[in-house]
Amino acid sequence: MLTPSSPSTSPSLAPQELNVNRKRNRSLSMQSVASTSSPKRAASEDPTSDSARSPQSQSHEMSALSLTDANLDHEIESYMANQPEDDLAASPAEEATPATPATPAQKLATVEALCKEPMVVGETWYIVSRKWYRKWQKALSGEVDKEGGVEEKDVGPVDNTDLVDASGNFVSQAIEHVDVEFVPQKVWTMFEEWYGHARQPQPRKVIARGLANEPSLEIHPPRVNVYTLTAFAPPGITVRPREVTISSQDTMIAVYRSFAEEFAKTEVDQRKYRVWKLADGASHNNIRYTPDLLKLHGATLLQPSEKTVGEELIEAGDGFVVEFQGSDQWVVDAAEIPASGSLGTSQETETAAPSQPLFSDGSDFFSSLQLQKRSTSPKQESTSLSSAFSPRRMWSDPDSSAKANAKTVVPGTLGLGNMGNTCFMNSALQCLAHTQELTDYFLMGVFEDELNFDNPLGMHGQIAQAFGALLRRIWAPNSSATSYSPREFKQALQRFAPQFSGYQQHDSQELVAFLLDGLHEDLNRILKKPYIEKPDWEGGDDRDLAKLANESWQGYLRRNDSVIVDLFQGQYQSTLVCPECSKVSITFDPFMYLTLPLPVQKKWSHTIFYVPWDLSKPHVKLPVEIGRDASFRDLRQLLGRWMDAHPDNLLTLEIFNNRFYKDLDDTCLVGEVAENDIIVCFELPCHAQQSRSYKPQPDDPFIVPVSLHDIIPPRQTYGRGSTVFGYPFITVVDQDQARDPDAMYDAVVERLQRWTTNVRDLFTWEAGQSTSTSPKAVQIPLPTPPAVETITEIKENGDVVTVTEGVPEPEEGDIVDEKSIVVRESEDDADMEIVDIEPPRKVGFKKDIFHLRVQSGNTAYGAGYNSLGMASRFDSWESRAQHSVDSESSQPILLRRNDTFICEFDENMKAYYFGEGRGGWEHARWDHWEEFLHPDFVASRKAASQNKNKGISLQDCLDEFTREERLGEDDLWYCPSCKKHQQATKRFDLWKVPDVLVVHLKRFSNSRALRDKIDTFVDFPIEGLDLTEMVGERLVADRLKAQGVDTQELGMSGTDEPLVYDLYAVDEHLGGLGGGHYRAYALNDTDKQWYHFDDSYVTPTRAEAAVNSNAYLLFYRRRAAHPLGGKSHEKTVAARQNPKQVAEPAQGPRMPTPPEEPAASSESGKLLSGVSLPFGGWPTPRSNAQSSPASSPPPLDDGDPPPFEHALDDEVIQSSLAPLMLSGLSGPRFNFPDPPSRDSPTSSIDVEPDTDADIEDILKGVYP
């Protein structure tokens, strides 16, 4: 249930409104057993054995549970059930329900118009299965596809069963227009009125997300477990805890009440109760929670307030215990329950705290946001790092003495708990946390002095602060914690990057990119960016090239200077060459990570049926192989080259069920075609008009599709009872032919010659003249008995034949019956005298072969299953003449664009020219295709076979990255010399490489036609990755040194040292797009041991294990004779030599101890007042802050974090954390701008001030 965002009460919907409100929504990694209504009801009813219990001992317990069983339908009620009335009240526009549409077309138009309306915060929208929605669309539009048509009476109620699992948990990726459709409440009401009660309704609330308060659907709201506190739990009786769905925007007041209503819905206002928040990892399989369990696991009293669920850091899977007071006494004494979690305790009250700077002495980021109350219980004394980032608390022994014997873990081996599909974040954080130079910079506190609060492109220092606090937790030197859930970091992250909100899986690389960019802007030492004009390449030699590169780099550094630039940023060279004037353009741009394509082009293989225009050439089928992302324009260019035809004259169409089904123009990708689809390519004598760049001309010929049919009964249209047969084809009718029906008939018959073996009988023949001046008698010999009649005939086609007929004479029959007549050619009879005549001549095509009819269409080439005859009848030639554009002409044009010819054959003509059909088309040629194997195809297959077992190395990927390629037609470059756009050649080269090189292996492709992952193994070195010969700066420096040039003047320092890198971390992705998991390998600099990080599980491993086919992000550190990091390293050394007074001595070769926090007294343990950070929602296709579809894998299936029973004791006592708050702190207060929503928000270097256009380019990762 969703609860109100601000009111103090939580009114429920009226009972009649609950019929469409079901909560079926859960995160993939927080799944539980059944959540449907009937299993829940059966499993939750109190067993009969409860009756044997003592009433005195059970009075309070049973009063809490008595209403439970009567109200278990809450498990399937909507999570909207407790929304406030003011939110649920419809606006005047909503109350004015539109009149029910009368026709299917009106219904479709009404729904589509309503779905285009913008979302408004507080509205209720519904998720509808795309599968059902498409079926509904087909029924109402009359569309007929390969699966046939659908009638509206067969649509049925909305069916979302494909979006949920067997337990009713929402498991869909929820990609709009792909998996689901989002419809407003009014549309949902219409669907239920028209088609009945829906199956598995999925209502969702529109919430404001991120700093920009973007309205978006909360696709995956948190789902928590709710228990009731009882004096004891009878053995052998187990009732599963309640699973309650809340909203991240619910207030704690509403949540507090809704939890109590789960057990005492009608008595909640008459009874006293309180709610406990269980410690992280605590769980129980029984709805009854006992005081002993509460003491063992630890809990914190939940305080009702106006803060939201998101602000209080409540996540999916958290546990809450409702305690009802009985006989003026609570079930448990609050003083006996150890504190835990990050919520305020009951003893804490919100007061205005004195302002103090962030990361002041004795505090870190989150402790500066709130004060913490420390318990004096011996069990709560911490022997590890005092930090607001408390480790996840685990329990393996209820005896507190176990804590004294807890083993201190190696710093840097802290696992990160999965909070619901957050493995993508955990693996990325582990890799960055094990970047030694970056970690030292943060742990020594250098970043505190470089926080840039005023950078409009940054996050006002909060991402850097949150990351620094997390690093202190990971590298705590004396901690015995084995796992920790980084809730606070996730909270800070999703505030500025709403695309990472919620419980959907995301791309780990995108997180790394965003985090590096965010840290760079938060720590940018440039407070006011100067205007820098980007230099242009004017030509020259190596010296000029080096000057240009250095000038570009120095200009970038004048606007961007941070630890991220010192460690992670390099420079690449982009070269463009005009194919016409050979103009060369060279630019130098920075990069923060290197995205390398894998030289594994997934091929699209298909057989194309090619029909040449020349009738003397056979139609052939030829296998092709082309890149899966290629368009049909690329395919036509390939076919044109192979078949010696102009690509613009080729027409590609899909045939289905004897019709042209799809126009495969330039916008279609070959990857969209299924394996069994029939693709035909027609060569035409003119431009096929299929290219997007083609501009129609007034004298263009008509390209008309031709379809073969049986005779269509009167008053019946094509497609409703008519039988289509054979092979559709294309004819071309010029402007003159389009004025004469006979000429158009002849144009069709001419093309028909290709598809029948009885070609000669398509023509009318005229006998030639006799060569003699006087006729001669024809001698017909009379053979001996039996007597027969013989007749010599001259056929229309000029053949002279003798017909021998027996007695009785055969009855007159049709063309097919003549097959029984014995025909003997006259030349076989030596005794017959042959009449000497000229060869017969073709007079023209026969006019009675078929009846030609024309029909208008709405699509080019008649493409579409139902494009013909479903909406209109045939047009007569007379009607066409009257409505022609030049009807006043004596011979008006009778054709229109998108017309289709229908050839109606009677049974006899069809059988003679094509065959009977039932036993095979014996006279047809559409089943006879010669196979054509082009040499290029043969060579490609041979090369693929040879390379099949050949592995791919990282060097191959680097070579592919630097390979020269030609720009596509949609990505033209404007040549300043030619003054026009050109298809230039483009090449990327590495010019300068950073100290820490992050390599992104581009395994995911997410195009319109294909969403795929490349699982090919890439062999990459653990040690000794040598890039010296690939870096342009080194190569140019060597040549200049040979010429005696001082390279130091050109900014080329340290060029004598080889560029050799060693691997120190790997971020890997297991599985495919349909499900998977992120893990990490990293080298620990403390003990020089490699570790494998699988969320909260950390195990030692070997470096070789990281080299596998799952590797996705590679982290390399450069070997150098001097420390890495430049200016940042110098500041880190200075901080180590002059540590702050509050810092403890380092407990290892490199790990400092963060400042110790003094124990807080009751006065100091008060919450800071102020406005807390808003909680972001989940990205939807209607949001402007989505992760990139081009590189993100779909939601993956992570498992739940390990149960607390399996972990070791944690000696660190968890402190109470107040939510992230801004007010009450020293320093300026900010009006936050809209956070960057794309991958790489890095500074620009050529514009001042930062205009919107500049920022837009920056967010796209483009450096002007």
Describe this structure in words.
This protein has 1264 residues and is an alpha+beta fold. Among the domains are: 104-217, DUSP-like; 223-324, Phosphatidylinositol 3-kinase Catalytic Subunit, Chain A, domain 1 (Ubiquitin-like (UB roll)), CATH 3.10.20; 415-569 and 994-1138, Cathepsin B, Chain A (Alpha-Beta Complex); 701-713 and 722-764 and 839-882 and 891-927. Helix content is 20%, strand content 19%. The chain has 27 helices and 45 strands. Strands 15, 36, 40, 41, 42, 43, 44 and 45 form an 8-stranded mixed sheet that branches. The longest helix has 16 residues, at 542-557. The protein is globular, with a radius of gyration of 39 Å.
Brief write-up:
Residues 102-207 form the DUSP domain. The chain is of the alpha+beta class and 1264 residues long.
